[in-house]
């Protein structure tokens, strides 16, 4: 007989994983997620530094950091930072919204990385420009890809 605690743990684990047919976002879904943010404006490389380990032993808890070169003044500041993982079930992993009073345009967090892929950070500036950086990561134990039985 299964206990209530075991049931809750199994239910949460099942709910947090994608269905077997939808383990990865499609390239079109990634492009659409980025286009929804940029409105079609091209992002330039530079000003953004995405910091993630090149080799990830376990994709369930990955330390990720993003910083953007910006004076963070009223006239010139970072409005938002978005991080995308094309091989995750949902491509937009995290979005952070900032303003001139934020002090520094940087954050760090822990995320789930589904598989070996290239992570993309996108910074939206107050002047309407977009800047990006990308990092390729190798995941040895993928997050949330176990087949449901």
Word description of this protein:
The structure is a single chain. This protein has one domain: SoxY domain (Immunoglobulin-like). The protein has 149 residues and is an alpha+beta fold. The model has no long low-confidence stretch (mean pLDDT 86). The chain is elongated and about 65 Å long. Strands 1, 3, 5, 6, 8 and 9 form a six-stranded mixed β-sheet that branches. A three-stranded antiparallel β-sheet has the order 2-4-7, with no helix packed on it. It has helices spanning 4-16, 27-38; strands at 43-45, 48-51, 55-58, 62-68, 78-84, 92-97, 106-111, 117-125, 130-141.
SSE layout:
Blueprint (H helix, E strand, L loop, with lengths): L3 H13 L10 H12 L4 E3 L2 E4 L3 E4 L3 E7 L9 E7 L7 E6 L8 E6 L5 E9 L4 E12 L8
Parallel strand pairs: 1-9, 3-9
Antiparallel strand pairs: 2-4, 4-7, 5-6, 5-8, 8-9
């Amino acid at each position: 007989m299964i206990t209530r605690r075991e049931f809750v743990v199994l239910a949460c684990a099942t709910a947090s994983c994608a269905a077997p047919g939808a383990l990865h976002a499609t390239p079109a879904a990634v492009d659409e997620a980025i286009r929804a943010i940029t409105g079609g404006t091209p992002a330039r490389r530079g000003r953004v530094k995405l910091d993630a380990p090149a080799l990830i032993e376990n994709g369930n808890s990955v330390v990720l950091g993003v910083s953007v070169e910006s004076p963070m003044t009223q006239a010139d500041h970072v409005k938002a930072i978005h991080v995308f993982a094309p091989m995750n079930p949902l491509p937009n992993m995290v979005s952070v919204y900032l303003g001139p009073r934020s002090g520094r345009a940087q954050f760090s967090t822990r995320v789930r990385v589904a598989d070996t892929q290239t992570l993309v950070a996108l910074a939206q500036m107050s002047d309407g420009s977009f800047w990006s950086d990308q990092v390729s990561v190798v995941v040895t134990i993928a997050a949330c890809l176990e087949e449901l039985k």
